[in-house]
Amino acid sequence: MAVWLTGWKQTALAVSESLLKPFFFDLCFRKPKTNIVCSDISDACRSKRSQIDSSNSFEELLATGHLHPLLKVRTEIRQIFLEMGFCEMPTNNFIESSFWNFDALFQPQQHPVGDAHNTFFLKDPQFSYDFPTEYLERVKTMHQTGGHGSIGYQYDWKLEEAQKNILWTHTTAVSTNALQTWITKGVHSC
């Protein structure tokens, strides 16, 4: 039954019901025969309805509905890595701050490289505030003045830009966040 709602008023557009009784319909349950002999087949051919259910006579059901071969290989490789002690990173958080998505990966703020990622900024929640302070300062220093043989980008790095929430553009942002979290907690294995 299709129904269209307009405010509180319901109007029926179409009503259609179709019930067909299948040819094998019966109110009584009969156990199907599994040992079939020639006389059963000849009797079945003569009668309108056969009591022989050949689909139940198979000992094994046919295997249907397989996984894609690449998915099987992926699952096997994933299991191997997990057994070796590797951890899976949480990739179910699709909202990320610009800090983890760009700044921690040393992409400069307001650089055209951000446009190549199709960045979508969020209105609500617009900003993130939970960053490891020491790591934030190290990233800021690397952007502004450099270090470890680098001169940095030589620009005024802004915390407001790093706090903007976006839909993450790549999973590498998850990698930087997870690695920093594991280092901070002193986690060496899962």
TrEMBL record:
MF annotations from Gene Ontology: ATP binding; phenylalanine-tRNA ligase activity; tRNA binding
Residue ranges constituting the Phenylalanyl-tRNA synthetase domain according to the UniProt record: 60-179
GO BP annotation list: phenylalanyl-tRNA aminoacylation
Pfam families: tRNA-synt_2d
Alphabetically ordered keywords of this record: Aminoacyl-tRNA synthetase, ATP-binding, Ligase, Nucleotide-binding, Protein biosynthesis
Top-rank taxon, per record: Eukaryota
Cellular component aspect of the GO annotation: cytosol; phenylalanine-tRNA ligase complex
This protein's name: Phenylalanyl-tRNA synthetase domain-containing protein
Organism name: Amphimedon queenslandica
Organism ancestry: Eukaryota, Metazoa, Porifera, Demospongiae, Heteroscleromorpha
